[in-house]
Amino acid sequence: MPPSGLEPYDAVLLVSFGGPEGPDEVMPFLRQVTGGRGIPEERLQEVAGHYLAFGGRSPINDQCRELLAALRAELDARGLDTPLYWGNRNTAPWLGDTMAQLAADGHRRVLAVTTSAYPSYSSCRQYRENLWDAWDAVRAAGTELQVDRVRHYAQHPGFVDANTDAVRDALAKLPDEVPHLLFVTHSLPTAMAATAGPPPRSDNGSYVDWHQSVAEEIVWQLRRSTGVEHPFDLVYCSRSGPPSQPWLEPDINDRLAELAAQGVRSVVVSPIGFVSDHMEVVFDLDTEARETADELGLRMERAATAGVHPAFVSGLVELVLERAAVERSEPAAPSVIDGGSPGLLRCPADCCPNLREPARPALCQAPAAG
Ligand SMILES: CC1=C(CCC(=O)O)c2cc3nc(cc4[nH]c(cc5[nH]c(cc1n2)c(C)c5CCC(=O)O)c(CCC(=O)O)c4C)C(CCC(=O)O)=C3C
Ligand SMILES: [Fe+2]
Predict the structure, then answer these.
(1) For the segment 315-326, what is each residue's pLDDT rounded down to a tens digit?
(2) Which residue puts its alpha carbon closest to atom 12 of ligand 1?
(3) Residue 178 resides in a domain
(4) Pair 161, 122 in one domain
(5) CA angle, 365 then 368 then 370, to 5°
(6) Do residues 114 and 230 both lie within one domain?
(7) What's 60's domain CATH number?
């Protein structure tokens, strides 16, 4: 491979969740995502209904296409001609096919960027397990690839600034108020949340802690620029699983009802847990939570997700450059919000454990200590 400016890496791989692109793809997608995870059939039918209400097409693949185009433009602008690839965990383009293509195209050092910004089993290790499967198949077919992944980036200024900007735009639509801010992320089983991130862990675990820090930073940035301090909470959406299993709360709809009862009149909803307008955002927030707000007589504005905001796109490219520098043993100070965590270059073996299949291998992991 000719030098690309990202040495030692010769390719960048965007890894995403995947989503259906038509009605016939909805049920196969849901079965793929939930295979063996004990999600009740009723919940599957309900979620199928969310997808079918949007013509059976998830927004996520188109958003990946847009992100790839934006990343390409940003790499080009910086004189980096490193090829970009894309693979999904749950639909085409399948990660396994993309990994085989990377090998066939002669690549041997690949840097992965996931469309998921926080630590937890679902948002980190599960991606690394699927990376392992794809990598292992290529290895079995005779090619030795090395795959790394950029550190968790929720506390990178690029991601935070994009979200702050979006909250500012949403606030501008409610000029006569001091809206309550609701920062939203995907709920998790509390057992998964408690074991998110590397030990030693706080009571909340890294998933909740990281979201809390991002929310606080956004509120602080707004206060610094406007002098207004907005009341805020971290709330959850998209609870799944059997009713007997505890998940992170409060659900956004319940919190909206509480706020209305307390006399709050307007809210800005900021989906900091999602990098773009996934189905959870367009259904759980823009459809369901909006209906709740309407019924309660609350004014609600939903802030944009990071999407292809220039700060986010250039932040991802900076993360890629930073990691390449680290691998070349050059000094590279990790860029991170004040008091935030730069995250880890390689997850330790006991980070974000798979509570169902503890022995399942995952890629991008630090070698086990002594
Ligand atoms: C933390 C987290 C993220 C954020 C990090 C990241 O982005 O990865 C995320 C993203 C996503 N989740 C998605 C879709 C689904 N997630 C499900 C189920 C679950 N998600 C979980 C967690 C998360 N999920 C969990 C603990 C479950 C229970 C089952 C299990 O333990 O695995 C189910 C099954 C039906 C249901 O139960 O809801 C579906 C269909 C899509 C695609 C959306 C689109 O099409 O636009 C995206 C981006
Ligand atoms: Fe999910």
Answers:
(1) 999 999 999 999
(2) 17
(3) yes
(4) no
(5) 155
(6) no
(7) 3.40.50.1400
The total number of structural domains in the chain stands at 2
- Across the beta sheet with 266-270, the strand order is 232-237, 180-186, 266-270, 299-302
Residues 295 and 169 in one domain: yes
- pLDDT tens-digit profile of 31-60? 999 987 878 888 899 999 999 999 999 999
At residue 348, what is the residue type?
A: P
- Confidence at residue 205, expressed as pLDDT on a 0 to 100 scale: 96
Residues with CB under 6 A from ligand 1: 17, 19, 30, 33-34, 37, 39, 43, 47, 58-60, 115-116, 120, 122-123, 186, 188, 238, 240-241, 278-280
Q: Are residues 47 and 113 in the same domain?
A: yes
The domain of 25 spans: 11-152+313-327
| 185 is a domain residue | yes
Beta bridge partners of 126: none
The answer to ipTM > 0.90 is yes
Task: Give me the residues paired with residue 55 across strands.
Answer: none
Query: 157-172 and 206-226 helices cross at what angle (nearest 10)?
Result: 50
**137, 254: one domain:** no
At residue 369 the predicted structure's pLDDT band, cuts being 50, 70 and 90, is low
> Is position 280 annotated in a ligand binding site?
yes
**186 labeled binding residue:** yes
| pLDDT band at 342; cut points 50, 70, 90 | confident
Helix, coil or strand: residue 84: strand
